[in-house]
UniProtKB/TrEMBL annotation:
Keywords: ATP-binding, Nucleotide-binding, Transport
Pfam families: ABC_tran
SMART domains the record matches: AAA
ABC transporter domain ranges (all copies): 5-227
Assigned protein family: Belongs to the ABC transporter superfamily.
Protein name (record): ABC transporter ATP-binding protein
Length: 228
């Protein structure tokens, strides 16, 4: 099967009070197109940093990140943003919706950035898909956590991403809402073949994926295929 993400010798360091802090240490793995993957590990082990580098939100200190055949590690922020707009969906634990925009406007932003036409009906269609057509004119503060996460899913799905990254997508949600959000994410994989890379503390969610990558102290310590 073709790979969509290829990570080689990936290292991320930060400078802090004159010392070098190695947050990710020589990580290597490849993700197959259409597959479902979980990244797990203790808090502070580097999972969020790793996801951000894979998605082109941040840049590595050294090593390669190749997404859909494009070397992200050699691109500047603007060029990485273009790749993200074209191929990547990203879901944050704390939703990261723009507070001054309605649900509908939040979903319209990436469509506008891509220069698409007829963005309002398309955004409404996406909100309908996540069951929130009737909340389209609500601001994030007027929505529950679960509703905000579903708006952020609609936003992440809007560019029909080839790969969806999610950082603790159910971390702030109750069990029932988590189930809805997880179903929407996996439906995207089943219906559109979108590759999934999920960071999660939730063992049940990790077990639903086909592969579990375990990170500890900035190193990839195991890589297991599951029955998921
Ligand atoms: P996880 O997602 O597994 O909880 P993170 O990737 O958020 O881990 O963080 C890994 C380590 O990197 C932590 O020790 C964190 O303090 C450190 N870290 C993350 N971002 C920065 C930054 N901008 N500057 C310095 N250290 C950072």
């Amino acid at each position: 099967m073709a790979s969509i993400l290829h990570i080689q010798d990936l290292t991320k360091t930060y400078q802090s009070t004159g010392k070098t802090l190695t947050v990710l240490d020589n990580i290597n793995f490849t993700v197959e197109e259409g597959s479902t993957n979980a990244i797990v590990g203790p808090s502070g082990s580097g999972k969020t940093t790793l996801l951000g580098l894979c998605a082109g939100l941040d840049r590595s200190s050294s090593g390669m990140v190749e997404l859909n055949g494009i070397r992200l590690d050699s691109l500047n922020e603007d060029a990485r943003a273009q790749v993200r707009n074209q191929y990547v969906g990203f879901i944050f634990q704390n939703f990261q919706l723009l507070p001054t925009l309605t649900a509908l406007e939040n979903v319209m932003v990436p469509l506008e950035l891509r220069g698409e036409k007829h963005i309002k009906p398309r955004a409404l269609e996406l909100l309908d898909k996540v069951g929130l057509a009737d909340r389209s004119h609500h601001y994030p503060a007027q929505l529950s956590g679960g509703e905000q996460q579903r708006v952020s899913l609609a936003r992440a799905f809007s560019n029909q991403p080839k790969i969806l990254f999610a950082d603790e997508p159910t971390g702030n949600l109750d069990a029932e809402t988590s189930e809805k959000v997880v179903k929407l994410i996996f439906d995207l994989n089943r219906e559109a073949g979108t590759t999934l890379v999920l960071v999660t503390h939730d063992a049940e969610l990790a077990a639903k994926t086909q592969r579990i990558l375990r990170v500890k102290g900035g190193k990839l310590i195991s890589d297991e295929r599951t029955l998921g």
